[in-house]
């Protein structure tokens, strides 16, 4: 592949202290990305699979909650296969109103339209601050930044959220409650697919106090999407992640060593296995690597809800998945709070955090 010309450093001294990609992307005359956003060996250069997207598993949530016993059993089997083969699936007929999903997406757009002064109130400083907003991933450490602005809020067991724009907090509280219910039902079915009791994960992970995090991502148009990245390849830290977006693609997952473009079906969730479920299942279900690509035509908004154990839960491989066979524990037990703290002061690096607890 021919070398891609890099933008001149001197051309972008005015952008050396960017606090908002949205503001940068809206700069008059912007035709190339600042060098601090250009990856010399951009992971976007890696091959993208030509496999048809319809091979990605689709789970009909309504059959888990209101289907016949035979239908539920079949869906649990399909869910287990999806977790094993892909670490990912799409969920349809989940019962969360489409109008509510759209209202929260518009709330995210409205939040990023606030002035810098208004958003500064919610900046946060530390990983465990209940509300944070900013850009990139860890801008204080990174040498090359990501084409992304974000809002993060801890929404369970206590609900923390910005009070601007008007109505955003109320819509989001209802949305988080609804998606938490979807995640818990999925985790019951995943428990059964592992041969465990339906409520095993719920009890072992203390989901009544489980950490739920709301993440709103804004990926503005980019003049050179072949050089920039929205988010690098990484796995998520919790149990299950539910994602929806504003109709603009950019989510890619790794499957069989190739990257696959994933577009959300209408009124659906994109759901991926995260690190704590890999630990609990002793590696039977693996968290997936995924990334966010950017484009030059339209701004992408993604709404990510991560669902994890309670902060004080020590996550171990389920004894039933180790003691009933010849398997040995493949992971060390670690308190979820400590696992999160390991992310502090680090760049995103594939599944590097999970590697720390592998036996």
TrEMBL record:
Gene3D superfamilies: B-lactam Antibiotic, Isopenicillin N Synthase, Chain
Domain Fe2OG dioxygenase span(s) in chain numbering: 209-309
UniProt KW keywords: Iron, Metal-binding, Oxidoreductase, Vitamin C
Superkingdom field: Eukaryota
Pfam families tied to this protein: 2OG-FeII_Oxy, DIOX_N
InterPro entries: DIOX_N, IPNS-like_FE2OG_OXY, IPNS-like_sf, Oxoglu/Fe-dep_dioxygenase_dom, Plant_2OG-oxidoreductases
Signal peptide, first to last residue: none
GO molecular function: L-ascorbic acid binding; metal ion binding; oxidoreductase activity
Family designation: Belongs to the iron/ascorbate-dependent oxidoreductase family.
Name of the protein described by the UniProt record: Fe2OG dioxygenase domain-containing protein
UniProt source species: Lithocarpus litseifolius
Upper lineage: Eukaryota, Viridiplantae, Streptophyta, Embryophyta, Tracheophyta
């Amino acid at each position: 592949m021919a070398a891609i010309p890099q933008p001149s450093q001197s051309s972008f001294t005015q952008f050396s202290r960017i606090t908002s990609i949205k503001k940068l992307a809206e700069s008059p005359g912007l035709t190339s990305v600042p060098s601090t956003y250009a990856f010399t060996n951009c992971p976007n250069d890696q091959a993208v699979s030509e496999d048809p997207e319809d091979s990605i598993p689709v789970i009909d949530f309504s059959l888990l909650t209101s289907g016949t016993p035979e239908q539920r059993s079949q869906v649990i089997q399909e869910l287990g296969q999806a977790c094993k083969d892909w670490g990912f699936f799409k969920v349809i007929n989940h019962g969360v109103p489409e109008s509510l999903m759209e209202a929260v997406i518009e709330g995210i757009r409205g939040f990023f339209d606030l002035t810098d002064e208004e958003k500064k109130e919610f900046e946060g400083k530390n990983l465990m601050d209940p509300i944070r907003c900013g850009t990139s991933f860890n801008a204080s450490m990174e040498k090359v930044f990501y084409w992304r602005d974000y809002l993060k809020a801890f929404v369970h067991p206590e609900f923390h959220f910005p009070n601007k724009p008007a109505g955003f907090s109320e819509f989001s509280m209802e949305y988080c409650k609804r998606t938490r219910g979807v995640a818990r039902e999925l985790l019951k079915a995943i428990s059964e697919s592992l041969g465990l009791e339906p409520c095993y994960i719920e009890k072992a992970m203390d989901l009544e106090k489980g950490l739920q995090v709301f993440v709103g991502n804004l990926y503005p148009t980019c003049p050179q999407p072949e050089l920039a990245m929205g988010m690098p390849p990484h796995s998520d830290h919790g149990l299950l992640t539910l994602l929806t977006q504003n109709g603009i693609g950019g989510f890619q997952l790794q499957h069989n060593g190739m990257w696959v473009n994933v577009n959300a079906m209408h009124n659906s969730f994109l759901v991926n296995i995260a690190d704590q479920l890999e630990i609990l299942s002793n590696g039977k279900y693996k968290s997936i690597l995924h990334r966010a690509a950017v484009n030059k035509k339209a701004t992408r908004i993604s709404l990510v809800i991560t669902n994890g154990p309670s902060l004080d839960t020590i996550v171990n491989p389920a004894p039933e998945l180790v003691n009933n066979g010849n398997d040995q524990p493949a992971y060390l037990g670690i308190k979820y709070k400590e696992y999160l703290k390991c992310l502090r002061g680090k760049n995103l690096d594939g599944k590097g955090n999970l590697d720390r607890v592998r036996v």
